Amino acid sequence: MDRPSERIEDTRSGSRGSPSGSMTSAEANAADSFLVRVLRQDGPGLTSYWETHRVAREPDMNCISVLQKIAERAETIEGRRVAPVAWECNCLEEVCGACTMLINGRVRQACTALVDRLLADRPGEIELRPMTKFPVIRDLVVDRSRVFAALRKVKAWVPVDSYLDMGAGPRQSQEDQELAYQYSKCMSCGCCLEACPQFLKIELVRGKGESETDFRRRLDEANRQAFLGAHAIAQVELFNLNPIGSMTARQRLDVLTGEGGVQICGKAQNCVKVCPKGIPLTTAIARANRAAVRHVVRKWFDL
Amino acid sequence: MPVPRVVIIGGGLAGSAAAMKLAELEFDVSVVSLTPLKRSHSACAQGGINSVNDLTRQLGDSEWKHFDDTVYGGDFLQHQPPVKAMADWAPRIIDLMDRLGVTFNRTPEGFRDQRRFGGTLYRRTAFAGATTGQQLLYALDEQVRRWECAGRVKKYESADFLGLALDDHGRACGCVVQDIQSMEIFTLPADAVIIASGGCGALFGRSTNSMACLGSAVSRVFQQGARYANGEFIQVHPTAIPGADKLRLISESARGEGGRVWVPRRPQDPRRPQDIPESERYYFLEDRYPKYGNLVPRDIATREIFRICIEDGLSVQADRMCVYLDVTHLPRDVLDRKLAGILEIYEKFQGADPRTAPMKIFPAVHYTMGGLWCDYERTNDGELVVGSPRNQQTNIPGLYAIGECDYQFHGANRLGANSLIACIFSGVTVAPGIAAYVDAQQRRPAETPASVFEQSRRAHQEQYDRLIARGGDGPNPYRLHQQLGAAMTRAATVIRRNAELDAAYQEVCALEEQSQRAAVADRSGWANQNAVFVRALADMFPLAKTILRGARLRDECRGAHYKPEFEMPAVDSNDPQQRKLQAERWCDVFEENNRRWLKTTVASWSSERQPEICYEPVDTSLIPPRPRLYGLAGADVIEQAWRTRQSRRELQPLVHVEP
Predict the structure, then answer these.
(1) Does ipTM top 0.85?
(2) Which residues of B are known catalytic residues?
């Protein structure tokens, strides 16, 4: 269930080194409390900094309840009053994807990161950082709009004629349903992108005198050119498997074979290792690759 | 004519369904949400979605029986025309979701598979593993994205709804919204506004709800004059696992697929559950409700679990209330194909495998049956006029409510797998009604002079500036929230007592007063979650007070609202003659209760910051109320007495729910 922990290389340059100088190891090992190191950042483009909080240990804690305790106390170990740490969350049962962050160096959802297990692996301390492949909005909140932009780009939907009553959808084998269900559990959390060596961070700053619209356009263009990532390739598989979706499969394959498409994948296979939903991402990429080749060959011969 | 505009607050199942349908009808749609649509709370719905289907039809099921199960399950507190329409439309809604690519589980022949759910004897529930809500939400989110690409829908996915803009006719003409990153406050003019913001689990501290289920959008329109109905009806789900941050749902589908609830007959039996022989296990639901067994409606299952733990002292553990939910006897492939989603949740959070050892569960606050009061139009025969501008419209013209935050469909208790159908049904059918409403307006609300919007915007801006200026010295808002949750959970969940409700009301008023001064520790003008929470906290109190007041006034037991002080008289005599008399007495009380209490609770927010409550008759014109016993062992004498009484009066025969 718990995958062996993988440390993602720290590609961040702006981080100011090690924090929490003042605590003694005796304090850190106190069984009734533990330390939480959080990499904070007050806003986009600002310098990040470490901050350490002490949290009382209670039964059944996860990293969400840790952050709730920090918000409630809002005081560092040095006794300094600070603003509560900002983070994103919603469902708290790993179906919404919101609370994704780096916990002890590993990208995952904070809700399923249980304190007892984290402390068993690394006694006394938990480290929380924002994902590194997306621009930081504040503290642990990052801007993942690029994930959704990729879904727009690959036309990740079933293009029905209308929402009028046209009877049931096509029948489907259990096997096909089970395959599709695997892919459709993707909650767009971004773990696969964080772990991917080919997926690089895009962080643009709005220029002086640049209008909001122009800035948006520039960002869209940058997103369009950059790698789609494993999640979007798997969604192409999902919709090209769907009997109605398959009718527009070529449009999605055009995207896959275009700029930022499947050819950029370097087959590091990190994505599938970090996917919290166990989606067969590398299988999807392999299938997409084959479909893409067929698609290109057919286009050459104008079939 | 300019393109008509609608703003939708909330992008879960109901909001997304409305957005895609309105876009198809060529509206210009804006969706305002605290989270990206795809991360909405609908994703947490697990078990499935109900409708009569080709399979159940051949076993005698019909739209009417789905309708009947729903109103019987809701203890007859719903107006029946909209509920009947929902049951009638349900098969078509599921067909539509099927076409949109929802990965419903399949039979070997390739048809949609169905399972049984609570409060019915038919296998009416279509499902996609144990993450049906997530799958339905994704299908709708994808359609909304398609319309977004077509330029028809604009999404504001990190925005907080602050209030309505009202024109000089009192119509909703748009709303004021805050971007919760830039903290900029702006207005969105509209010809109609839809609230689709879900339930208010946050009032109870921890619940099965997501963190965005704050109830704040509903509370804000309530404070602007919208009415709130049946607030006291809060569903407590029988099977959840406790956590420090949230109570996590273990879906009814576990029981739908054959899961059994039991406790050891010996209190706190120290043996491992798998070592306790069958004869020493007490399957209390099956024992008391032989007909429905583990699939009695949620309010009943929850009360039975409470009874077994509190009154009978049979909780599995002494230090923590819980009972076993056992699926270990089910075949592995069924578990993996149909229930994997929930079993993984249990596994991830409890660290034990429910395939080999029974789960330990306990009830948790789950669903808001009450909600914004809304209207409907019916024909003389009691059918809903689909496409009427009155359907789902609140008492504020141009303000609509759909999904969990409306009160229309579930009465005093919601049946499992009916919420998803209600959300999509109300979302899809509200669209033509809004089109009719907008067509009928002589002057488009969105054309209201800019000064009106600017005035609303400025008022909210000033309020926000004052909030930020308050600083960090007041009471701690997170602790106030915990206290509110504790007070509400103690007084207004499974067992309600008037003295406790009175005390809770006092306590909540005191907390409200403190919340007005609550500390805002973060003064940042960027992504200030602290300020957004403090504001939401203050808006929890009007709904909390409405729930408490409604519960205090309603001196009866109905569905999820249970007051031991007003329990139905016992039918427990061993003497047959005496027993008959007791049953007659039971029926007398039942009829008296209905005369007095078969009414919708309707609350308005007064200028003294108190809920004012009045009652409206319920339209039960299609199915007359009858005792809601679910075949309780030993209660057949009541059924008999009731039948005799009805036939003596030559009323229309009762509708039976025999398979």
Answers:
(1) yes
(2) 298
